[in-house]
Structures are given as C-alpha cells and as structure tokens.
Amino acid sequence: MPVLPQPSIAPASLDRRIAIARAALAWEALWPRLITPLCFVALFLAAAHLDVFRGLEAWTHTALLAGCAAALIGLTWFAFRGFCWPDRAAAERRLEIDSGVPHRPIQAIEDTIAIGEGDPFAKAMWDAHRRREAERLAALRNTAPRSDVPRRDPRALRLVPLLGLIVALVAAGGWRGDRMAAAFTPAFPPPPPLVVELWISPPAYTRKAPIYLDTQDAQRVLRVPAGSKVAGFIDNVAEGREAVLRIGGKDTPFAAVGPGRHQVDAAIEGGDTLTVLVNGRERATWKMRLVPDSPPTVEFTRDPASTDRREFRIDYVAGDDYGVTALKARLRLHGSERKGLLADEEPEWVTLELPMVAANPARIDDSIRQDLTPHPWAGLKVLVQLEAQDGAEQTGVSKPAIVHLPERRFSHPVARAIIELRKNLSRDNSANTRQLASRGLLIIGNAPQAFKGDTVVILGLRVAAGRLRNDKTGSDVAEVQRLMWELALRIEENRSTDAEREFREAQRELKDALERQAPDPEIERLIRQLQEAMDRMMREFEERMKDPAEREKAEREQQDMDPDQSVDSQDMQDLMDRAREMARNGQRDEAKRMLEEMLRQMENMRPMLSDKGQQGRQRQQQGQRQQGQGQQGRSDMNQLDRMTREQNRQLGETERQQRGQQQGQQGQRGQQGQRQPGQQQPGQGQPGQGQPGQGQPGQQGQPSPGEMGRQQGDLRRQLGDFMQRHADRGGDLPGSLGQAERSMRDAEEALRRGDLGDASRAQRRALEQLQQGMSDLAEQLQAGPGNQQDRGRVEDRKEANDRDPLGRSEGNYGGAVDTDADKVPDRLDRQRARDILEELRRRAGETQRPKEELEYIDRLLRQF
C-alpha cells in the first residue's frame, strides 16, 4: 500500500531561515578563499594608480600583464580547490545548532511513519509527535556568519594591500580611469594611418594642373572639368579589407599593388561626390562640380574680301574655354554659280587651314591673306564658313559669308580663254559642258601662232581635250583644271623675257638657300647673282620702252591698273637692298619675306615700269580730278597719327623707367650676393652713385609716374574730343578707338598709383588699338571719292613710328606684340641693327664680364 504524502506543519518562515543559514555557510566557505585573489587585485590597482605601468616597453608591459593574469588565475584556482557549495541539509543542521534546539526538529517534522500506518492509534501518536517537534521550530534563530580568516592570517597581512590601495588612491587624487586604461594598454606604436593620395587629372587639352585631393579640405567644392580622370593610391590597408572609390554612385575597386598598397584609375562621368570606402566604411569624401566643356566659337570680324594684291583675306575671331586646337575655313561654290548637274548635287566643301599664332590659344583675333588664284573657283562666288575645333573635338561654326574669290588677271588672250573654259567646268561639269570645253581647247590648240607655237602648250591642250572628251563621269575634271591652269600660266609667263626668267630663277635659288640655312658665302654669291639678273631685266625694260608700239601697249595695260599699286625700278632696288641687308644681319626669315614681296611686285611690273614720267602725269591728272575731296578725312588721319606717335612715346618712356627699376633691383641683389666686404668690382662707383640706365622714376631728367599719368590723361582727353567731333559730323566711328580710350584710362590709373607694369601693358593695348583705328578709318575713307591713297598714307605713318633697331615699336620690350610685324626696316634702322650686332659680338668676347651677362648675350646672338 503506497505511502500517502502527509501535510506540512512547518512554519512559513522555515524556508527563509534555511536559505539564510545556507548563505552564511557559503560566505564562511568563500571569504577565506577570496582573500588572496582580492589582495592581489588590490596590489595591481595600487600599482596602476601609482602609474607603475606607464613608460614600460610595450612587450615588457604585455608580459607583465600576462604574468599578473596568470598569477590571479593560479591563486584563484588554488584557493577554490576542494570548494563545495553547501546543501539544504547542511543549512538545516547549521540552523538547529545555532538555535540550540536538540533532536533535529526540522528533520523530525519531515519524517514519515515507518510501520503501523494503518493503525489509528499509531497514527495519532505520530501526529502528536510531529506537532510537538513543530512547536520547537519556533525557537530557531539565524546567527551571523563566522569568519575563519583571523585563524588563517593571525598577523593581518591581508590589510597591507588594502592600505597600499588607499595610499595609491590618495596619491593619484582619487580614482583615475586614464591610469587604469594605461595599465591595461601596452604602449604599442599605433597602426599606420590610412593614407589616401588621390588627384584629378583634367584632360590634356584643358592645360589645367592636376587637382590634388586633401582630406583636410573636404568642405570645398572642387571644380572638375568634364572628361577628367581620378587616380592615386591608398596605403596601409589591412590585409583582407577591400578599398573602393565611389564616384557619383558608381564604385571602382582599388587594385592591390603591394602589401597594404592599392591603386585606382577611373574616369569621372558624373555625380557630385567622390568617396573612398574601406570595408564599406567611409574614410574620405570630397564634393565636386563638373564643369562642362563649351564648344568653341568663331565668327568673322569683317566680311571676307579680296586685297589689292588679289589675295583672299579673312578676318576672324575665335575662342574656347580651354583653347582652340584647329581652325579652318570651308568654301563652297555658291548656288548661283552651279549649273546643270551641279545644281542638283550636294555642294562640295573645300577646306582651308587657318594658322594659329600659338598652341591651343583661348582666343584668336587674327586675319590671313592667301593666294587662291590657282583654285578652280577663282573669280566665282562662293560661300565661306569658319569652323573651330577644341581639344574635345567639339566644333563651332560661323555664319556663312558670300564673296567672290580673287582671280589672276591674265593679259594674254589665249590664257584668258583657257581660264574661262576652266571656270565653266567649275560651274557645270556635265557631259555637255565637258564636250564644249574639249572642243574649245582643240580650237585653241589649232591656232599655235597665237601662243608662239609652244609645243608643250600644244600637247597639253590636246591631252586636256582628250581627257574631257573621254571622261564619262566627270572624275577627271579636277586634274584637267589643274593642267589648264598650268598651261595658262605658261602662255602668260612666256611673254616674259629671258631676263625676267633669269630673275625669277635667281630669286628661287636664293630663297631655297635661305630655307636650308646655306653658309654666308653662298648667300652672298646668290645675292650678287640676283642683283645682276635684276639689272639685266631693268636694262631690257629700258630698251623696250624705246619702241613706240611697246610703249603704246604698256600704256593701255596701265589704264587697268591702280597707279598706287605700280612700281618702278627704284622700288625694286629698295626691296633688293633690304633683302641683302637682312640676309647679312642673319634675319633670314625677313629676307625670305622680302623676296616674296619682290615676286608680288613683279605682278604689277610691266614694261612701263621705267616710264616714271608717264606715271607722274597720270597721278597728277588724277590728283587734279580729286582735288578738294577728302580734306577732312586726311585731317582726321593726321590727328590720329599725332596721337599714335604721342602714345608710342609715352609707352617707350614707361617701359624705360620700368626697365630701369628692374635693372636697379637686380644690380642691388647681385652686388649684395657677389661683392665681399671691403671689395669693389671694377668700374663700379661708390655707394650712392647711380648706374647709367638704372635710374628710378622721378630722378633728374625723368618724369615721375604722377606726371606721366597726367600726360596720359591729356592724351586720353584729346582722343575723346576727336571722337566727339567725328561723331558730331555723323561719321561712323571705329570701335577700336573707343577701346583705345578705355585702355588709356587704365594706363592713366596705373601710372597714378605707380604700377609701371600694368601701365605699360595698357599703353601697348592703346597703341595697337589706335593703329587699328587708323586702318579702319582709312578703309572708311577709301570707300569715298578722292580718298584712295589714304590707306597707303596710314601704312606709311605706322612704319614711320619710332622703332628699335630690330624693327619693333620703340619701348616694345619683354615680349610685347608688334602690330606691324611685316614692316621692313629702313636704312637707318638697318644701320642701327648692324651697330648693335657688332657691339653684342664685341661684348661676347670680353670674358671678364659676369657669367649671366655673357649667357644673355649668347642667347641674343644665337638667332643670328
């Protein structure tokens, strides 16, 4: 029969008292064991607050920490060896003993009857026994734990670590978290910081310097040209970590190139931020703004036109934010000139490359003159359009202009007929036109007496006619037109005498020698050969003029020419003398230009070249017809000429004083760096003595900057009065004069504040604009009756301005732009150039001169 559980009669507080007794037993067992580890911890804390660990070598510190940890673990293990947590029975027994209650009443009330459970008497006796024992439980009391430490440590050594900790805390001024951190942190050198070296490389055509990215300047918005690339390195990346460059949401991983070193190279295609991430964590970021590359602009500054020398002139201005890389003019035959099949076809563009004075200039304001008379479209109406290209291969075009291309005037009737057939082929290259041109060439070839029976011309005409007759598609027209041009030139030039041909051949040989840098003796020989050929040509012209028929023919040809464009023997001799002087002075490029000028003059030189009396009479008659016309215009030109000369003089004075300042400063620095105490260079004066040419503004004989500013202001007011009078008369004022007035104002302000550099630059601009204004005004006057000679007078005045020995405007130093670069020096200028050249050579031989001066002289002589 199973034993039924008996109801509990224990008081409610019994379990609580047992738990307290059990905790007391646990404390009595733990505390003696914890004393030793705690004392060790107290000693460590005391040492930490006394800053014992600071200054230890990192590995020594680490070893000490490891030893302390091992000691603490060992002490703890040794102390808790054999430890058992007290159970309930031990707690009950402890409670009964501490309360002085005998016979273990707690156990008695929990016991069960062993025998006689079914006996009512026995059951009653057992219940009475349990109640009696339960009453004794009321006497149970908990007592305080009893420590065994004094027995184990009778000398109280356990207090020493505690006292040490207290002393350390007092010495440290309380609890010090920083010292505790130092105690637990060995002073290992920190890991190398992450080094980010990135730079943005703009496209090469922008000529912009690379933009280096600074992590300390992350707030600045970078202006990045479109098309740029970013490249660089990131160092000290921990192994296994991934570095990424994020550009506007697009990630480009860094490539590992070595231990901890990664590199990247990526194009910037968009976005406004550039970020470096390592393992997804942002390490550096920059803001940026892409600057788009605008296409170039180009336009005509004036309508294209033909010059008096039958050259095609184009005046243009072009610009780009990063520089123009290519500039060209495109020509297309005008629709009114296209006939037949050409009228329905897509017109063909012909490209003419335009020169640029510098590589990739941001702005070009220039003009070109080119001989297009050999082109098949010469004499026809064409469309002209300018096209500019930048480094990004973007193009900009101008509005088209309509112009008649200049053509050569052929005096030989056969040559004129061939050229007319050639022009017809340009207008219409249909089969019918080709057949007509073929028959026309055969007709010309069947009359050889008209061109002195030249066999080469006869064969050329037959070949051209045959090719046109057999051409079914028009593919041979261009080649035939070139042949027709050569035939027309041969017929025209066969009118020239043997002396003319010898002159042309001698000129060609001399030009070739100059181009290949032939030695001086050969140049001298060819110059003498050219002089002899020109003398023979002049004598032959003189003899021909004695024939009345030749004279009458020459006068008829002269009627179709501008008298101002005709030349005589003295003009040719002057050009010859100038070319000779330039070649001897080493100015070979200028000498070549002189030879080209002589050839151009040959186009105007006809048998009447020596007939000065006839030309004089014609000019006198023309002057009488034009008397009284254009007087006001010439007066304006004279006033502008005087103002231009005065501006040139003021520019020279400003640059002389600026040069004196610079030389004086350089001289002082050189004397301080080279002269030893107590020594004096030969030829130097005592302190306080001025050196020639090194005066300062305001010294004796030189106006002060304030006085120069007043003079500049007076000149500006004169120009303003001139412009006002011109406007009152209803004249069209050139815009360059207004620009000159503003440049004068800038120069005046710079002079008044003593800035000679800004003043000289503004004065140079004013001088160039005044000269341009004279040219523009002369062209306006030339359009009116009686003013055809004004343009020539302007050029003469510009050439008469003060020049230095090398042909530049006086005062034009330091790379200033000479607006009249093709001007040929006169005899006085050439003599001064020779004198300066000899002086430079003499000084180059004086070895006692400073090294810097000798090197400078060598650079000057190198071009000669």
Task: Tell me about this structure.
This protein is α+β, with helices and mostly antiparallel strands. The protein has 7 domains: 14-184, no CATH class; 195-291, Immunoglobulin-like (Sandwich); 314-404, Immunoglobulin-like (Sandwich), CATH 2.60.40; 414-493; 498-612; 637-656 and 704-824, no CATH class; 827-864. 51% of the residues lie in helices and 14% in strands. It contains 25 helices and 18 strands. The strands form 4 sheets. The protein has a 5-stranded antiparallel β-sheet with strand order 2-1-4-8-7, with no helix packed on it. It has a 5-stranded mixed β-sheet with strand order 3-10-9-5-6, with no helix packed on it. α13 packs antiparallel against α17, α16 (569-584) runs antiparallel to α17 (588-604) and α24 (827-844) crosses α25. Mean pLDDT is 77; it is low at 606-629, 672-700 and 785-828.
Number of strands: 18
- Overall mean confidence score, pLDDT: 77
Strand sequence of the main sheet, in spatial order?
2-1-4-8-7
**Broad structural category:** alpha+beta
User: What best-fitting shape do the alpha-carbon axes yield?
Assistant: elongated
C-alpha termini separation = 141 Å
Low-confidence stretches: 606-629, 672-700, 785-828
Can you count the helices? 25
Computed CA radius of gyration, to the nearest angstrom: 54 Å
- Give the biggest sheet: 5 strands, antiparallel
Strand content: 5-15%
Overall helicity: 40-55%
